[in-house]
Amino acid sequence: MTTKASHFKVHHNGVTIRVSRGGRGQLLVLCPGLLTTQADLHELIELLRRDYDVVTFDLRGHGLSSPADRYTFEAFLSDFDAVMTEWGNRGLPSAPVLVGHSLGADLAVHHAAEHPDAVAELVLIDGANPVPEPFITEADLPEFRAMAEGLRHEFERAEGTARQVLLTPQDFLDLNLEIEVVRSGILDRYRKIDRPIRMIMSTSMAGNSGEGRAQWRNQNWRAGIERLVRERPHVSTSWLDADHRLVVTHAPEIARLIRDTRRPAGQAAS
């Protein structure tokens, strides 16, 4: 059953961010990842609304939000901050749970590091990972350029719908290279956060084809989380047998893990 939701806009630096709110319970702010929209996350959002008052939105250049002239990490973070400021100005009774997928997880960590008192806890889904080695080396650039170009047809097919992505393939590639740099220093951000943190991670972030460097990337992904837990032992981790699309393919499992507050911090699940 679809939960009735309200819809409104946040205007910020010439960009219009489309926001939805629905459900009941503790406030939860859900930030989609790169190339992901509220429409893509429909199942997960509806499941979470059974237990939470869910606020979610489309990133600039995604879904029903407006295009922009910049698609940098700082630009996306400023939009995230604008949405959070909107709720802070409404005098809510308690701090929200922040949930982010992929790029959205990185945005949540950076926001929480700067506003630790405004967050109840973080649930980070397959993102904000301090991987020990970069995913995109000079030798990997041709592969990633081809991947970015391959997205062009997907972007064109979704144009004009709630699932549209207005970034160019070059925007996508540039942002991925920037995220590599951001994640190289993200442990410093974690050190500023004293709220509970739960990670929900995919075992096959780069797929399970076994071709090319996919296996190494999956190992690097796991090594990043092991590094994080060594540095911040209170972080709890759950691993799902999935790839990076887990927010779409494993929505019921993710909703259950977000609701589950009984597992002691630091205990991993598989």
Q: What features would you describe in this structure?
A:
- The chain is α/β, with parallel strands linked by helices and 270 residues long.
- It has one domain (5-135, 183-259): Rossmann fold, CATH 3.40.50.
- The chain has nine helices and eight strands.
- It has helices at residues 42-48, 73-88, 103-114, 141-158, 169-184, 186-190, 214-231, 246-249, 251-259; strands spanning 5-12, 15-23, 26-31, 52-57, 97-101, 121-125, 197-202, 236-240.
- It has an eight-stranded mixed sheet with strand order 1-2-4-3-5-6-7-8, sandwiched between helices.
- Helix 3 links the parallel strand 5 (97-101) and strand 6 (121-125).
- Helix 1 (42-48) runs parallel beside helix 9 (251-259), helix 2 (73-88) packs across helix 3 (103-114) and helix 4 (141-158) crosses helix 5.
- It is globular and about 50 Å long.
- The protein starts with a strand and ends in an 11-residue tail after the last helix.
- Mean pLDDT is 93; it is low at 262-270.
